[in-house]
């Protein structure tokens, strides 16, 4: 391997200055709330794409793994499979993709470890739905500030004040609307901008294909034009003021309040306002604590962690991409860094931004940015990379699996491919692989949060690794962390099995909570701790 720079040739202070311009966030929502539509509208606003796809809809893109890949195919626009980066005003915005289906919430959780803020997208008619609440809980747990967007105001929906109550009651956050709708849901006239009292009038464009021109009117002009509807918005605005629903930056960053915007993503209305809010209010990257809690400052040498690994994107090349989020320093393509887990050098010659099927080399990147490393076979989810001074970032939490199945090769001659495939799926975090002496290496247990992960694993084993597999579901639903000392007692009770996860964790598997409770009551000294629940 040729010697390459490990220290950045960039002037001192570059990483800090560039980080200050970064806004790295993800959209959390329930399927169908309009995440893809909003993403497209954001890209349109930032002029990444010229025109939003003529088809706003799901036809032809009911993907299971990556919504964006399918969306890109269906609409002919370019979006990376992990992050969309664009410049807006003087900021660089990184929008990270989160899988929509609840079965992939573990993936989404990992993406949320790589963002500095989240946009909670709410369907005006449905309010806070199940998946939104789960993802909100993850953000809360991680202390990620949340901007709320009430979407689809152009369609009949709930009352705006009622929605604010719902946010307060169900999330504990105090909503601080920055805009307030003029006209009830389904009669969207525009928004009252609570920061200056002006009226931003909503104008439709054909199919919402271009940036909706927002007409800016004064309060007097608005009153003249919209009459009672405007006055009602003003009255509700006063009501909000009286209840203290005003934006306060510290409370927002501290996870006490959430700024709220009203929008119609499909008509591209309110999207520019959201970008402005992200640039003006969302936090830039800050130094990240390592596994011991010591903060690695932005200006320290390069460091990053892998938050997502994706294989088989390009069938012709069989490549494996590891996506890293940069935490400190400057990333320069070609630099040789150290892979924290193996302590081996890792060459970053093939650093790319992946735009659908097109790939572009990334020459420089800064804290907050996402870079795809090609053919990164050694890298697994949660791994750290660094230059100069070693750092290990805290391991990414693995969720408590709820579904279990024994996997075995359908073709005995293919045991090599079988082993390789299982190992890879494990390191990518597609499934958790659990082993025990009793089951042997040829038939480990796969554990997942959502059963759709089984489908992905089976499909990839057959098509990517050429090792067709059969799965036999096991009757367990609960995994608890245990230790060596507790093993003999647990093993002697019927219906319970102990297995070991690749990270060394010993897990006891129970069919249901009653079986667990019974064992706990019988032997109070046993170590049986819950794993992090898939929020
Ligand atoms: P998702 O990624 O969150 O799953 O949602 P997606 O963007 O695919 O949007 C889901 C549906 O909601 C799409 O319609 C989309 O056009 C629609 N939609 C998104 N934003 C808005 C909005 O602001 N107003 C209105 N009225 N609709 C919006 P679809 O799949 O074609 O279904 P349909 O409901 O149009 O039949």
TrEMBL record:
Function per UniProt: Increases the formation of ribosomal termination complexes and stimulates activities of RF-1 and RF-2. It binds guanine nucleotides and has strong preference for UGA stop codons. It may interact directly with the ribosome. The stimulation of RF-1 and RF-2 is significantly reduced by GTP and GDP, but not by GMP.
Compartments it resides in: Cytoplasm
All copies of domain Tr-type G, residue ranges: 20-286
Keywords, alphabetical: Cytoplasm, GTP-binding, Nucleotide-binding, Protein biosynthesis
Binding site for GTP: 97-101
GO cellular component, as recorded: cytosol
InterPro entries in the record: EF-G-like_DII, EFG_III/V, G_TR_CS, P-loop_NTPase, PrfC, RF3_C, RF3_dom_3_sf, Small_GTP-bd
Main location: cytoplasm
Pfam entry (one): EF-G_D2
Protein name in the entry: Peptide chain release factor 3
UniProt-listed PANTHER family: PEPTIDE CHAIN RELEASE FACTOR RF3 (PTHR43556:SF2)
A single GO molecular function term of this UniProt record: GTPase activity
Family listed: Belongs to the TRAFAC class translation factor GTPase superfamily. Classic translation factor GTPase family. PrfC subfamily.
GO biological process, alphabetically ordered: regulation of translational termination
Superkingdom field: Bacteria
Organism: Blastococcus xanthinilyticus
């Amino acid at each position: 391997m040729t010697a390459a720079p490990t220290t950045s040739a960039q002037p001192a202070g570059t990483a800090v200055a560039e980080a200050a311009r970064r806004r790295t966030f993800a959209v959390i929502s329930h399927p169908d709330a309009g995440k893809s539509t909003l993403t497209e509208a954001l890209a349109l606003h930032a002029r990444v794409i010229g025109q939003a796809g003529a088809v706003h809809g799901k036809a032809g893109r009911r993907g299971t793994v990556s919504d964006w890949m399918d969306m890109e195919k269906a609409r002919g626009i370019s979006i990376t499979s992990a992050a969309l980066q664009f410049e807006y005003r003087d900021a660089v915005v990184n929008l990270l993709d989160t899988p929509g289906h609840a079965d992939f919430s573990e993936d989404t959780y990992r993406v949320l470890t790589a963002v500095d803020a989240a946009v909670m997208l709410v369907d005006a008619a449905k309010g806070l739905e199940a998946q939104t609440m789960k993802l909100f809980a993850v953000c809360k747990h991680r202390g990620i500030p949340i901007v709320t967007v009430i979407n689809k105001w152009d369609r009949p929906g709930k009352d705006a004040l009622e929605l604010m109550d719902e946010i307060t009651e169900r999330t504990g956050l105090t909503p601080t609307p920055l805009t307030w709708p003029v006209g009830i849901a389904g009669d969207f006239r525009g928004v009252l901008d609570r920061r200056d009292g002006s009226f931003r009038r909503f104008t439709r464009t054909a199919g919402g294909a271009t940036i909706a021109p927002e007409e800016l009117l004064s309060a007097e002009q608005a009153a003249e034009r919209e009459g009672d509807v405007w006055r009602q918005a003003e009255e509700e605005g006063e009501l909000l003021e009286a209840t203290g629903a005003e934006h306060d930056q510290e409370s927002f960053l501290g996870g006490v309040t959430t700024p709220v915007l009203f929008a119609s993503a499909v008509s591209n209305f309110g999207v520019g306002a959201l970008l402005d809010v992200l640039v003006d209010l969302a936090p830039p990257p800050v130094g990240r604590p390592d596994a011991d809690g010591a903060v690695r400052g932005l200006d320290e040498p390069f460091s990053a962690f892998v938050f997502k690994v994706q294989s088989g994107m390009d069938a012709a090349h069989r490549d494996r991409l590891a996506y890293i989020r940069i935490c400190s320093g400057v990333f320069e393509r070609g630099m040789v860094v150290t892979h924290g887990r193996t302590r081996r050098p890792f060459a970053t010659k093939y650093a790319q931004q992946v735009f659908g099927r097109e790939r572009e080399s990334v020459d420089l990147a800064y804290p907050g940015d996402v870079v795809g490393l090609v053919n990164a076979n050694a890298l697994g989810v949660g791994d750290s990379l660094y230059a100069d001074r070693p750092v290990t970032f805290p391991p990414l939490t693995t969720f408590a699996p709820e579904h279990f199945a024994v996997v075995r090769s359908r073709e005995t001659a293919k045991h090599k491919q079988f082993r390789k495939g299982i190992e890879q799926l494990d390191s990518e975090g597609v499934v958790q692989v659990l082993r025990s002496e009793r089951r042997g290496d040829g038939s480990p247990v796969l554990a997942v949060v959502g059963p759709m992960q089984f489908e992905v694993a089976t499909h990839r084993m057959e098509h990517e690794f050429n090792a067709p597999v059969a799965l036999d579901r096991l009757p367990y639903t609960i995994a608890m962390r245990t230790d060596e000392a507790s093993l003999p007692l647990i093993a002697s009770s019927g219906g319970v099995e102990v297995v070991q996860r690749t990270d060394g964790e010993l897990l006891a598997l129970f069919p249901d909570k009653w079986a667990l409770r019974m064992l706990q009551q019988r032997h109070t000294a046993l170590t049986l701790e819950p794993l992090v629940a898939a929020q």
